[in-house]
Amino acid sequence: MRSFLPLALVTVAACSSSPQPAPTASPAPTGSPAATAAPTTSPAPSPAALASEKLAADTPKTTAAGNTFIAPSGWTMTVRGQATILEAPEAGNHIVLVDVKAKDADAALALAWAAYGQEPKWPLKTTLDAPDKDGWTRIRFYDYQTSPNEKRDVGVNVRFANDMWTVIIYDMAQAVGEKRASQTGLIYGRLLPKGRERESFAGKTANPLDQARIAELGKFVEAAQQKLGVPGVSIGLVQGGKVVFAGGFGVRELGKKTPVDADTKYIIASNTKALTTLMLAKLVDEKKLGWETTATSLLPSFKLGDADTTSRVLVKHLICACTGLPRQDLEWLFQWRGVTPEGAMTTLGTMQPTSKFGELFQYSNPLAAAAGFIGGHVVFPKLDLGRAYDEAMRTLVFEPLGMKSATFDFKRGQTGNYAVAHAPDVDGKPAKAVGVVNEAVIPVRPAGGAWSTVNDVLRYVQMELAEGKLPDGKQYISKEPLLARRAPQVALNRDASYGMGLMVDKKWGVTVVHHGGDMIGFHSDMMWLPEHGVGAVVLTNGDPGWLIRTIFQRKLLEVLFNGRPEADAEITTMGKMFFDQLAADRKLLTIPADAAESAKLAAHYTNAALGDVKVSRAGGATTFDFGEWKGEVASRKNPDGSISFLTITPGMTGLEFVVGSGEKKRTLTIRDAQHEYVFDEK
Fold first, then answer.
1. Which domain holds residue 62?
2. 140 sits in which H/E element
3. 0.85 exceeded by the pTM?
4. What CA–CA distance (Å, rounded) separates 319 from 42?
5. Could you tell me which of 67, 320, 405, 664 has the fewest CB atoms within 10 Å of its CB?
6. Same domain (yes/no): 605, 517
């Protein structure tokens, strides 16, 4: 994720299978019917190309030095000397692979820019070192400070192998970077040194999770929790049909001693999606609908902003991330009080696809929510959409599986044994997060609104591993509709695919079915190895808990298959990178916000899609009030001279509003990659 991109903007997302290119190159959610498309052009390299090829399919290629990678379908590859330039279908957006001989990483960086034919015009914000991986050593990231009005991310990754440096330059418009995140992940994920093969556990038998191996996993989690400042982590492990561990590390809330355990309730965020598709699978099993049934035949009011796409959406497409609808999370994150599921569905009807049907992985939470609401409507057509969904989940999923604590009721979720959301403050210190914003998921709850526990989610994982059977041997659901949810609907990268609310990853030679979830201060993952009868659940109550949930999968595989010890170093280094970036961004901020710049702001702004922003000042601080929540903002002068105001409330740190002026009124602009929203002075 971008260093100051708030986690709220990747809420209930879980695309952890696609490797992130560089600190600045992560995808962000996209806009709304009131938004305008972001431009995607930049100057192309000037020297004449020696060889150029447009790829008709994902194609194995090599760099000038023989390092292997996959060039994505639809991209154009140009070879010029030591530089291999990959251009996205949207002209002017490049990933460049350059092999050079140099004395060190900095020298390699300079040579690579020259080979690309560009001069980096942006200030260098951070330089971050990363652990050795996949045969690469001396890995270093360079993060450039672009101006928000450029709508562009630029970052460089330098790495060493076979006595040569390989430099990867990421130079792309934010809109293109988000839209084609799975394709950029394809390039980075399969980039290996010449002669190197990725470690594989294919054909190996999983070790028993005995006391020593469980202790090793526990040590990893506890160390990660402490290094990252995450107050609490609960985990559970299943092997051979039995729970072999369920417990917790740390506390429910900072400043209090009550520990987390396997019965502590957390928001499980996008792990809700798999439970939603399980409800749909039950309806398929009962022949109340089919995966190939059109959505409009079940709910005639179902609608997307594109009529052609609407007509072709089948039940399986509602939650496949394959319809071309990108993220539009800002709309439900900014305005949720008084919004009903019916209202959320109306907003969905204004959302436009930005890629062709089935072409690219693009993750839409509102569309995933529609899947649950349509399923609930089939079961309980006389109830409103929200109550119908809740009742369908209770009767078809939670009660049959014995998930006694699972609920969509936030009041019930936050009673008794429950975890509180946390996030670093603007100075990197652990703090309580602005948890009220998590209520924004309630109108779209099938996409990520469930509260649950490790013990509850373990029951679900056990059922998946048993291919539909419950612990008592009863067949809860037929195997065919259950497993259909794992069938690939769209590629995440060369090694992984997205099905229906589930990812299937074969990166290390074994099949891992999983999904993750992220809400403000809550990060979770569930995973299972169907061929080995092993499963795990990880729930956390603090940022950057997404590092724990994603890297835990690697640690589990290391323990199961005696893999190379990479996870411990990775969690340490990735944590350092996160906090180093946070510190680098903090240095650019003025807190309290610059008084002279704050005085130029209007008192009240409005946007048709996102609502109102009211500006107030007290005690030197400037506050933005969004209605549902409010918080102090910092100011920042950008390299191009523009002024930004950024929220600094823990959990919502980094919402960026760029100051502008229209012909008659002052404006604030916020962007989320593929679209932008302009707030006009009211």
1. 16-198
2. strand 137-144
3. yes
4. 34
5. 664
6. no
